[in-house]
């Protein structure tokens, strides 16, 4: 699975979760609000939540796809925490650090691209 597809899927996951959490509220996280996330607009609680939940969805999706072996350039998390030495680890720990790093760099590149377009 290409990284861009994981990012898009994760963003959709975040938007769906936002809609679910605000289903019964006056502001119900409408889909068109996600297309209006631009720099320079005043910060609001809603906009902050939308950024956070979308980023969380992207980190979650990238991390899951990485641990399933569906993304190139990532590997299992190397840490085993405080587990006993006689316990044999078999499997792939979720590499949340990789998911966070990719999400952060994607957000930065997106912000820089928008800034250059408006300059």
UniProtKB/TrEMBL annotation:
Q: What is this protein called?
A: Protein Wnt
From the UniProt record, list the coiled-coil ranges: none
The record's subcellular locations are: Secreted, Extracellular space, Extracellular matrix
Keyword Disulfide bond assigned: yes
Give the record's GO biological process terms: canonical Wnt signaling pathway; cell fate commitment; neuron differentiation
The reply on keyword Signal is no
Q: State what this protein does.
A: Ligand for members of the frizzled family of seven transmembrane receptors.
**Which species is this UniProt entry from?**
Penaeus vannamei
One Pfam family per UniProt: wnt
Hey, which family's this protein in? Belongs to the Wnt family.
- Which molecular function terms from Gene Ontology are attached? cytokine activity; frizzled binding
Q: Which SMART domains does this UniProt record tie to the protein?
A: WNT1 (SM00097)
Origin, by domain of life? Eukaryota
User: Which cellular component terms (GO) are annotated to the entry?
Assistant: extracellular space
UniProt keyword list: Developmental protein, Disulfide bond, Extracellular matrix, Secreted, Wnt signaling pathway
């Amino acid at each position: 699975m290409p990284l861009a597809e994981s990012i898009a899927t994760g963003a959709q996951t975040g938007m769906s979760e936002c809609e679910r959490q605000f289903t019964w509220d006056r502001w119900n996280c409408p889909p068109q609000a996600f297309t209006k996330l631009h720099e320079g607009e005043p910060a609001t609680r809603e906009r902050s939540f939308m950024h956070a939940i979308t980023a969380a969805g992207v980190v979650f999706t990238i991390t899951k796809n990485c641990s399933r072996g569906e993304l190139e350039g990532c590997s299992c998390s190397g840490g085993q925490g405080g587990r006993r030495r006689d316990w044999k680890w078999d499997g792939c720990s979720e590499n949340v650090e990789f998911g966070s790093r990719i999400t952060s760099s994607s957000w930065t590149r997106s912000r820089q691209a928008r800034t250059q377009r408006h300059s």
